[in-house]
Design goal:
13 strands; alpha/beta; five-stranded parallel beta sheet
Length: 429
């Protein structure tokens, strides 16, 4: 047998390649009409795969000629232009259909012609502030309780948890507040209700819902709904409901703005097993309180709504366009949106501590401490120009809070509810 050296073999391959390259260019289209028009120079033939529907190339070679465009749902990835409609139907970033209970602006006042003032107290002249303080004192003594009743109650189960944590040296601030709120609900017969649905507005971590289930009975038939715009915290109380499931108990979290939630369409509320709806909230800031009260009243038109316990917070975040009872401000008090804005700004003074330079409003979550902190230095300028001590500033701030709450109480009483404003926990907690 003869021997062919590698060099001769490579020369033969090169000669064949030269012969292929010297041939005339191939036709532009595949002689087989159903096969791909891509010419494979290395194989000296056309691709034998079937053409893609409506195109001249197969799926393998179509990408070499098609254009890619950004996805309309998410510009971080691209898609073939000819496959856009197909991609939009299965894109992971496509918007999800809104739930049946979501209705934009359901609980908002028609605000097409309502504008919220945006000035700060530094923009208000000293004579105007003094005149407002005079008016504030008059309306406070006319429409508000000068001394709030302290109604600090508890439930046996939660009180045992409070004492246990105290012995361990752990913080009991939030647990004590939740204990008092749930104890107040118990005084109104909530714990004797059959198969209720508990709704927590502005739930955050939904710790109040967890305490409510502990106080009501972990295995007693009931439904729990937590409403929060967004909660990115890992320490949510939802895990306790998942880890200790009970067939007769249902739990749901709704991530949406309070203004957009139609409780009448929420499955746990409208189910036949639900006999009544009890609402609660712990430190629902500013305008969110007005939205929650309006939401609960809308629900009461078709459902049994016996009780709502609200722990008020952040009156400085009340806005004129969403305030519950604007007629009380304009007709009863004779104020305008400007005076309303001044009252909401001055309400911040009520959170000051007489001794500390910085005071955190009791009940604010640790993740939101900056939101609830009030610096005494920030309002020192107002005290200096008005000639008022810190104690006087605190008193005026509390007056502003009570006047704003008086309007809410009047609105609820006009709707047929019995309302009472009390201190549910010590200011040291």
């Amino acid at each position: 047998r003869g021997y062919i050296s590698p060099s001769l073999k490579m020369a033969e391959v090169d000669s064949k390649r030269c012969k292929r390259e010297s041939k005339k260019p191939p036709p532009l289209h595949n002689p087989a009409p159903s096969q791909c028009d891509q010419y494979l120079a290395r194989k000296n033939r056309f691709c034998r795969l079937t053409k893609a529907k409506g195109h001249a190339y197969c799926g393998e070679h179509l990408g070499e000629t098609a254009n890619r465009i950004p996805c309309p749902y998410d510009g971080s990835h691209t898609v073939f232009e000819h496959q856009l409609q197909k991609h939009l139907k299965k894109c992971p970033s496509r918007p999800k259909p809104p739930p049946v209970w979501l209705k934009r602006g359901l609980h908002c006042r028609p605000s097409s012609s309502i504008q919220d003032p945006t000035f700060v107290l530094a923009d208000v002249s000293t004579p105007e502030l003094l005149a407002f303080i005079t008016s504030l004192k008059q309306h406070y003594h006319t429409h508000c309780q000068t001394k709030l009743e302290t109604l600090q109650t508890n439930t046996p189960v939660l009180q045992a948890l409070v004492e246990e944590r105290q012995q361990e040296g752990a913080s009991v601030k939030h647990l004590s507040q939740a204990n008092s709120i749930i104890g107040t609900l118990s005084l109104h017969g909530v714990c004797s209700l059959s198969n209720p649905c508990f709704v927590e507005y502005g739930a955050g971590k939904a710790f109040l819902s967890y305490c409510l289930r502990e106080g009501y009975g972990w295995e007693r038939p009931a439904s729990y709904v937590a409403i929060e715009m967004s909660c990115k915290s890992r320490n949510r109380a939802d895990k306790h409901h998942r880890q200790r499931p009970v067939p007769a108990v249902a739990y749901a979290r709704l991530n949406a703005n309070l203004a957009d939630v139609d409780l009448r369409k929420v499955p746990l509320v409208e189910q036949e097993a639900t006999k009544c709806v009890v609402a609660c909230s712990k430190h629902l800031c500013g305008a969110a309180t007005d939205l929650a009260l309006r939401s609960y009243l809308h629900l009461s038109a078709i459902h049994s709504c016996p009780c709502f316990a609200v722990a008020l917070c952040c009156h400085n975040k009340c806005v004129w366009s969403q305030y519950l009872n604007p007629d009380f401000i304009t007709d009863t008090l004779g104020w305008t949106s400007r005076e309303f804005r001044i009252a909401s700004l001055m309400a911040t003074w009520g959170n000051l501590d007489v001794h500390d330079k910085q005071h955190t409003v009791p009940g604010g979550d640790e993740d939101d401490e900056d939101e609830h902190q009030v610096s005494a230095d920030a309002v020192q300028g107002s005290g200096d120009r008005l000639g008022l001590s810190k104690v006087k500033l605190i008193q005026l701030g509390l007056m502003c809070k009570r006047v704003l709450d008086a309007g809410r109480i009047a609105w609820l009483q006009a709707a047929g509810y019995t309302c009472k404003l009390t201190e549910f926990v010590s200011d040291q907690v």
